[in-house]
Amino acid sequence: MRSLLLRLYGAFTTVVQPLVRRKLRRRAVAEPGYGVAVEERFGYYDDATTGEGQCWVHAVSLGETRAAAILIGELRRQYPGIPILLTHGTATGREEGAKLLQPGDTQVWQPWDMPGAVQRFLDRFQPRIGVLMETEVWPEMAAACAERRIPLVLANARLNEKSLAAAERLGWLARPAYSALAAVWAQTEADAHRLVSLGAKVAGIYGNLKFDASPDARQLAAAVTLRERLPRPMVVLASSRDGEERMLLDVLRRFGATSPVPPEQGAIRSIAKRVHDVQWMIVPRHPQRFDEVAALIESEGFAVARRSAAGEPSDAEIWLGDSLGEMALYYGLADVALLGGSFEPLGGQNLIEPAACGCPVIMGPSTFNFAEAAQLSLAAGASLRVENMEQAVTAALKLVENPERRAAMAEAALAFSSSNRGAAERTAVAVLAIAQAADPVVTEAAPLEDSKAEPTLD
């Protein structure tokens, strides 16, 4: 029987439904993807949207969808033909997820966490198992799945200290939700301890799925070709977040990047020449900010060339990587990457991706989203940590001028990436075992097919 508090939560999420609809309408103005199939978010589907007994995988946004792609690839390898129900919460996640679909799969929005929408979702699809990626645990959905005896699991699970504190403040909701999960497979031991403190049944510490992805080989090959035409070494601020682009531009301007550089006049001018001898590139994390960042670069006095317009290298002071799914190309072009999300208190973006491309990384102080990976990367010699953007630019310049150290870091990055693989296979085995135990119709996994291609990072 449901607690009074959970029923009150359900009543609240139902009452605020009009506000959710209004937010989606506003978001769709900037990102049209949010205006697609809106009624799915409230449990209403057209007749063509079918599928029962599938393996449901929920990947809220772009990063989780890329992790889900790795797991789905391994599930298909172990159980060829397994039907997938894929859900998302963001437009970028849904767009990326569409690339994963095969005949027999279904893709819809994750339902808003109110009783009516959740019940309609489960009535329509009746999944054999639900796999939530990384962090997405909703009280109503967890309770409804438990009532229907649909095993709901959390894969590639992570929980940082900030999120734990927030969950503890809402413990009356969070603890029953985490306790209702059939199993949780954590990325790290620290994540496992935090999840257990919320009542989660941690069944294993499997590492990060993202280590099992391989960079797009075609993009890396294209990067090799483009690098031959680059007049200067390149440093990329990768997956940058709001505020970080201005930080970089401020440092470059103070270092003299927008001023003509006369012949060398001692140490006072040397930093300006060193900055001019590097090609700088910015790749924003979110596509809706591409135009905003381009305008910012120009307003700060820099000439900008956009990947979407120029395509090929140009003489512009700043290149803007305004394309989706080309991070392997950007990392392949870069001599050094500055890790976006780590120079603001945002926890850092994926540092496993540049490591797999053999790209040395300089990270700022905030990497709590990838805390263990950051520590392992530093210990392996694949990355450096600095306290601010000025130190990052200075460190990048030193690396650019030291090819021997840069090559050693690139080699260490590749070794760091390859030594941490295996989470995908372990997780897929565990998912299929739980699905089979819950529903005897799920047969044992078919023999592995070694000819299957590895999932890619992009």
From TrEMBL:
<dbReference type="InterPro" id="IPR038107">
    <property type="entry name" value="Glycos_transf_N_sf"/>
</dbReference>
<comment type="pathway">
    <text>Bacterial outer membrane biogenesis; LPS core biosynthesis.</text>
</comment>
<keyword id="KW-0472">Membrane</keyword>
<dbReference type="GO" id="GO:0005886">
    <property type="term" value="C:plasma membrane"/>
</dbReference>
<dbReference type="GO" id="GO:0009245">
    <property type="term" value="P:lipid A biosynthetic process"/>
</dbReference>
<dbReference type="InterPro" id="IPR001296">
    <property type="entry name" value="Glyco_trans_1"/>
</dbReference>
<keyword id="KW-0328">Glycosyltransferase</keyword>
<feature type="site" description="Transition state stabilizer">
    <location>
        <position position="210"/>
    </location>
</feature>
<feature type="domain" description="Glycosyl transferase family 1">
    <location>
        <begin position="319"/>
        <end position="413"/>
    </location>
</feature>
<dbReference type="InterPro" id="IPR039901">
    <property type="entry name" value="Kdotransferase"/>
</dbReference>
<dbReference type="Pfam" id="PF04413">
    <property type="entry name" value="Glycos_transf_N"/>
</dbReference>
<dbReference type="GO" id="GO:0009244">
    <property type="term" value="P:lipopolysaccharide core region biosynthetic process"/>
</dbReference>
<keyword id="KW-0997">Cell inner membrane</keyword>
<dbReference type="GO" id="GO:0030313">
    <property type="term" value="C:cell envelope"/>
</dbReference>
<dbReference type="Pfam" id="PF00534">
    <property type="entry name" value="Glycos_transf_1"/>
</dbReference>
<protein>
    <recommendedName>
        <fullName>3-deoxy-D-manno-octulosonic acid transferase</fullName>
        <ecNumber>2.4.99.12</ecNumber>
    </recommendedName>
</protein>
<comment type="function">
    <text>Involved in lipopolysaccharide (LPS) biosynthesis. Catalyzes the transfer of 3-deoxy-D-manno-octulosonate (Kdo) residue(s) from CMP-Kdo to lipid IV(A), the tetraacyldisaccharide-1,4'-bisphosphate precursor of lipid A.</text>
</comment>
<dbReference type="InterPro" id="IPR007507">
    <property type="entry name" value="Glycos_transf_N"/>
</dbReference>
<dbReference type="GO" id="GO:0043842">
    <property type="term" value="F:Kdo transferase activity"/>
</dbReference>
<keyword id="KW-0808">Transferase</keyword>
<feature type="site" description="Transition state stabilizer">
    <location>
        <position position="134"/>
    </location>
</feature>
<feature type="active site" description="Proton acceptor">
    <location>
        <position position="64"/>
    </location>
</feature>
<comment type="similarity">
    <text>Belongs to the glycosyltransferase group 1 family.</text>
</comment>
<feature type="domain" description="3-deoxy-D-manno-octulosonic-acid transferase N-terminal">
    <location>
        <begin position="38"/>
        <end position="213"/>
    </location>
</feature>
<keyword id="KW-0448">Lipopolysaccharide biosynthesis</keyword>
<keyword id="KW-1003">Cell membrane</keyword>
